[in-house]
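== Folding the chain ==

***
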Amino acid sequence: MAAPPQPGQQPSPQQMAAMQQQVAMEAQKRGMTPQQFQQWQRQQIEAEAKKAGMSFEQYVNKLKQQAFENHQRQQQMAAQQQAAQQSGQPQAQGPGGQPLPIAQGEKDPKAVAVAKWLRGQDLKTRTCILSGQRKDMFRVKRALRALQSPAYETACSKNKLLTPVTDAASASEVFKLLPLSLLALRVEKSDPHAGHNHGPPSKPQKRVKGLWTVHIEQQQDIAEDLHYVWLYDGPQWKQKMYAAGALVLIMAVVMFPLWPITLRIGVWYLSMVMLGLIGCFFAMAIFRAILFAVTWFAAPPGLWLYPNLFEDVGFFDSFRPVWGWQEDKKKKGKKGASGHASAADGKASSKGKAKSKGAAKSAADNAPTPADTSIRDLKSRVEEVEED
């Protein structure tokens, strides 16, 4: 389709032919001749111009200006879509599947307000891996529920930047602000080894359960079952405080010669105490190793001082007990197995005795009564209902 002429510019022959062809098609749809359709269209435009309080020529020029602006907007959107397809940039979908331009510069304040509010809600986020970084992922339906909740309505009354939500369609429109400002994008699960030329790994890699490796989808659709990942981390006041604290600590260490003499003496004594504790620890480790080596030859299997010192236990448990003999793991395992076997034999013998005693009872005592039968039937029915 040829571009509409710019206001004040005469149409070219190609544009005139395209407009005549379009008029003929519209007239054929309505069962009119082109002359009748043009006359009917003029009457409609005159009526609309009269409603707008404008002359016929002014109203026609206004329509031409709007058509030219719409054509330019469509060309810009087509160019953005083509550039996004070439660079792999995500695209947001508008009504009817039309692509919407994604903001590249400053974020929309309304989108930032919505993102800040949603980050403070319980969306049951889960951690995922996006481009080698850990990100928070959530499902769209939880965000839509939060936007339709009374809490969001209360927040809208306090914050004028938040867009009110009346139904599911308006909630989707508000959520659409996030991908348009690159605050949250749609992702899909992907294979971390996809696109690599190597074969499967020789050793199975340890995988964290529930930790997805995801990639950003080009089409940013909005549906309840889709997953989005947060690119907006919220206010960074904690990170700023940590950075400021680290900077102050570094400056304090650098300016140590300017400290008061009392503080420098205190730091010196504290460092001596720490060095003494570290030296005592290494001396104790060496002594316990020498003691074990001597006792291993003199009194096998060897004596350990603080046997749990290097075990994976708590700080205080590392020094309990004070001493202990070296234990052979094989013997310990055999002792445990023999202990379990003897316990199993004891249980089996006790069960056999109980069975023999039960068999010695009289048949009259074991005969079921009608009451017992009804109770057992009732119990079986209750068990069946509980299982269902």
Summary: Confidence is low (pLDDT under 50) at residues 347-368, 370-388.
